[in-house]
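Job type: complex structure
Entries:
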Amino acid sequence: MDRSDFNLDFEKPLRELQLRLDELRSASAEQNFDMTKEAEAIAARLEEMKKNIYNDLTSWQRVQIARHPKRPYSLDYIGRLFEGFEELHGDRSFGDDQALIGGIAWLDGRPVMIIAQQKGRDVKENLRRNFGMPHPEGYRKALRLMRMAEKFRMPVISFIDTKAAYAGIGSEERHVSEAIACNLREMAVLEVPTVGIIIGEGGSGGALGIAVVDRLLVQAFSYYSVIPPEGCAAILWRDRKFTETAANALKLGARELHEQGIADEVIPEPLGGAHRDPDAASAALGEALRRNLAELMGLSTKKLLDQRYNKYRQMGEFTESLAAGAV
Amino acid sequence: MPFFSKPKYSTVSPPKKKDIPKDLYVRCPKSGELVYIKEIEKNWMVIPKSGHHLAIDAPMRVKSLIDEGSWEECDANLESVDILGFKDSKQYVDRLAEYKRKTKLSDAVVSGVGAMEGIQVSLAVMDFRFGGASMGSVVGEKITRAAERALEKEIPLIVVSASGGARMQEGIFSLMQMAKTSAALARLAKKRLPFISVLTHPTTGGVTASFATLGDLILAEPEALICFAGPRVIKEGTNQELPEGFQRSEFLFDRGLIDQIVDRRELRDRIVRFLRAFSGQPLPAAANGSANAGGD
C-alpha cells in the first residue's frame, strides 16, 4: 500500500502519515540508521487512525468509497466466486447492453443465472460500458435471462452497481421506464430464488430494475438511494454544493438500509473498502451469498413468492388514523 | 410552452392586467386567449377552442369519470410521516402541512371505488398540486391498496397518473414503492383483471418507471410530458439538442409506448368501451362508430 491509495478528502491524515512512514523507511535504508522502532510506532498509529476514520464515516464519505475507481466491479467478483461464466448477449430486439450483462455460471457445481451491472476500468472500457449506466436493452436482456432461469430452474443472482439508468435520448425513446417497470413486476413473481447484492452504487430505479429479490445483501461501503445525492441537492437545495448534506439526509448507507428493513444483510468489507483487499471482500460476499441461497433453496415456490410479496408489501412508513370519514 | 406549466391564473399582477379579476379568467397557454374559468370547469379544464388541457385536480377528475352518487372514497386517512427527519431548505413536515392546507387532501392520491356507466371500478387519481404528486409511502400504499381492492372485488383498476417522481424526502422508502405497486399489479395480472393506466401532464420518474407504464392499456392525454429522466437533466447531462416534441404524448405514441392519446372530454366513454370489451360485453347502445372521434 502506498500513499496514492489514500486519495479521498477524508483520507488526507492517512496520506500524510503514510508519507512520513515512507520517508522514515527510505531514510533509514539509505543512511543505515535503525529507525525500526519509530517506523513501527508510526505504522501502529496509521492502523489506529484507519480504524478511527473508516469506522466513523459520514454517508457522503461512504458514497465516495462506493464510487472508488479501484473498487471491485461485478466481473471481479464473478471471476472469483463462480466457475465457467458463459455470458449471454442481447435483448432479442434492439441491441446488447454492455453496462448490464448476464449469463450462466456455476456456484459450487450448481448452475445459476447471473445478472450484473458492470462499470469500466478505463476510458475505453467505460465508453463500451457507458460507465455502468444501462439503456432499456440492458433491462430487457436481464428480463429475458431471468425468464430463462425460471424455465430451467436456476436461481438468479444479481450484482447491482450503477449510478442510474442512463438518462439520454435513446434511453427515453426506447422507454427505459417501461423496461424497468416490467422488471419490477416480473421479478416480484419469478418462480426461482433471487438474491441481489449491492456492490457499490445502488442508484435509484436503475438499480431497482434488477433488485426486486428475495434477499438483498449490501456491502458495507455500498449505498442505495432514491436519487443520486447530486441530483437531490440540485432539486431540493437548488445547488450542487449541498451534495454532502443531501447524501447525509438521505440515509443511504448500508447500515441505515439494514435498520430501515430494506437490506436483509450487510456484508462486511475490509477496512477502508473492498478495493483494499478484493479477495477478502469476495470471500465475505461468497459466504453471505451461499448462506442466503441455501436458505431460499429449501423453500417451496409458494412460500418463496409469498415471502417476497410480503417483504415488499410492508415497505413504507405512514400513519393511518381512524378519524371520522374512515372507510 | 414551458415544462410543468401550470394553468396561468392571472395572479401575477403586472399593472396592465389589473382590470382582469383574478380567479375568474384563465389565459390559454397555447393561444393566449382569455377564457372564463366557469366555462373551462364545465369542460373538465380543457380550453374549448384550443383544446389545451389544463391541470385538473383529483376530486374533479373523479367527478369526470365516475357515475354520480356511486363514489366511495377509501384510505383518505393515510398520512405521510417524516421518517428520515428530512430538512432541506424547509422541514419536510412543514412542506406536508402546506400541501395539505393548499389542497385539502391528506396526500397526493385520491382513491376509492365507484361505477362507470354501471361498471364497478377501483380508481386512483394522483393530484399534482400536492407536492408535485411525488410518490412517497402514502402514494405507494394507496395505489397498492387500490390494486388489492380490485383483486379482492374482482373489478378493473384504473389509475390516472401525474407525478414529479419519487418523494426524495422519504429516501429509500419512496423507491421501494415502485416495487410494492408493481408487485401488486403482478397479482392483478395473474387474475386477468384489467388495469388501465392514464398518463397526464406531467408523469415522470419513479411513477413512469413503475405502475404507470404497466397498464394493459396505456392512455395519455394530449401533449403531456411523460418521461423517466426530465428533459433538463438529459440536456445538461448529454449536451445534446433534444428532438422536437421530445417526451410528449405524441412523441411517445409515435415510438410505441401509448395505445391511444385521448382527449379528456372523451376519456370516460373510451374507458367504458374498453371495460366492456374486457368483460365480454357488446358496445354501449349509444356508441358512435369510430373510437377515434375528434377531440375538439
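Summary: Chain B touches chain A through 71 residues (CB under 8 Å). Chain B has one domain: 51-279.
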